[in-house]
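Hello,

Our lab assistant flagged a job as stuck in the queue for most of the afternoon. It eventually completed. Since we weren't sure the result was trustworthy after the delay, we are filing this so someone can double-check. Below is the sequence as submitted and the structure that was eventually returned. Let us know if re-running is recommended.
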Amino acid sequence: DATGLLTSIVLVRNGLFVAIVDRTDTATARDSWAGGITKELTELAKRYPLPRTIFLLAREPDILSVSQTLGTIPFGKLWLSDNPPKVVPVLASHLVGLVRQTADTPPDIALLLMTLYWHRHAPGGNT
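-- returned structure --
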């Protein structure tokens, strides 16, 4: 999830959140942001094998540039595979229909991700 100054990295294994890292960046430079993401993924890789797919949530105007920035990061040392991870851009509009919102507060992205995951992997769901 990359929205504004807050970047969240969520690692899901076997349908459960096993690690959630929130990073607040004060610098707006892409290189600085990419370095921070690399640092956080390096720490996660010490405890868990990293997934082959990255689901990137970002605002619509930013999603292309953030996806391209992720594509420039040399992930080779972090992953157990020679192939780079696949980055799948996801907009909040892809998830909003799966959760009914009852308050005037912004959507809970973590809850939306859990709902999307359950919807795709639940028995009898769309797989």
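-- support follow-up --
The delay was a queue issue, not a problem with the job. The result is valid. The longest helix spans residues 30-47. Residues 2-121 form a domain with the Nucleotidyltransferase; domain 5 fold (CATH 3.30.420).
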